[in-house]
């Protein structure tokens, strides 16, 4: 097989991979059957269904197009569990949602003691019933969380969009980052108040992925150097040298994008995050395919060498026979 036709095949692989990636990117707004992200939904199985197919959940009417079957739930973020298919409606786009820490001890939100001071976007503050102000979702976000208690000098404000502002760190948290629970405060007073809980960042995991990322970045200059050597020196500019350069270039592009995920440059579900994810997938797959091409090239070379040797051996043997 001629070297240029190998390139043709590999380029075809590159092309079809790119096509697959583009198709996946177009279809990516979650599963076609699921109108929104799981975390923006509530279980509407027991809710009243109107004649037009919409569901009424806590006084919010969810249009039929925003209701679909889900066959999984998330116990925690990142821990998906298969369950019986059930109907869920996308409610958080219609009314702000607030997460109630499900499975926090035995506590659930006591609906008769659920008032909280909420700040409104016009700057005013008033005491509202959270069960009326927000749609309550029962999602424990992380396995390990801590409460923002006043005794630990935490101070926070919840606004009408269910965004929690935490004073100490001066950060705004959306519902993906906190949940609320009822807590006896002051202690042993018999009075319960609503307190938010936030995730304990598993720093070990974060540090590990960041070190990985830095090592990836550090290896890129050496890959580029290798590519340069193989392209500049004419003796190395052969089929296997070019294949090596292609493989290393795919790998170095993947290695340059991958660490951006570990350093939290992209926000979840953003277009940048999707692009980074699909690009990494594409270039890692491309690197594997170049590796395939390299194996083929190696096999071809080895076969030719042994083939030539045998032919040479037979020929020389034959000529010796002739002479005798
Ligand atoms: C959904 O709600 C129904 C009725 O309240 C309940 O039987 C079912 O277990 C719930 N499903 C999940 C996965 O929470
Ligand atoms: C919930 O509210 C009811 C009625 O006010 C009260 O009897 C009950 O003790 C409360 N439970 C908790 C856990 O606060
Ligand atoms: C709500 O705010 C008012 C005025 O700032 C305060 O008196 C009241 O104790 C607060 N209530 C709660 C439940 O935090
Ligand atoms: C639903 O609306 C009724 C009547 O306006 C009200 O009494 C009830 O508290 C509302 N429920 C919620 C969860 O907002
Ligand atoms: C909270 O602040 C008070 C007064 O500034 C201080 O005495 C106390 O030690 C702080 N508590 C904690 C847990 O940091
Ligand atoms: C948090 O949100 C409020 C209101 O939306 C805004 O005024 C404030 O600047 C935000 N703070 C941070 C740290 O993003």
UniProtKB/TrEMBL annotation:
Main location: membrane
Subcellular location: Cell membrane
Keywords: Cell membrane, Disulfide bond, G-protein coupled receptor, Glycoprotein, Membrane, Receptor, Signal, Transducer, Transmembrane, Transmembrane helix
Signal peptide range: 1-32
GO molecular function terms noted in the UniProt entry: G protein-coupled peptide receptor activity
Transmembrane segments: 214-233, 245-269, 275-293
Gene3D superfamilies: 2.30.160.11, Methuselah ectodomain, domain 2 (2.170.180.11), Rhodopsin 7-helix transmembrane proteins (1.20.1070.10)
Membrane topology annotation: Multi-pass membrane protein
Segments forming domain Methuselah N-terminal: 36-199
Pfam families according to UniProt: Methuselah_N
Entries under SUPFAM superfamilies matching the protein: Methuselah ectodomain (SSF63877)
GO cellular component, one term: plasma membrane
InterPro entries: Methusela_ecto_dom_1, Methusela_ecto_dom_2, Methuselah_N_dom, Methuselah_N_sf, Mth_GPCR
Protein family: Belongs to the G-protein coupled receptor 2 family. Mth subfamily.
Protein name: Probable G-protein coupled receptor Mth-like 10
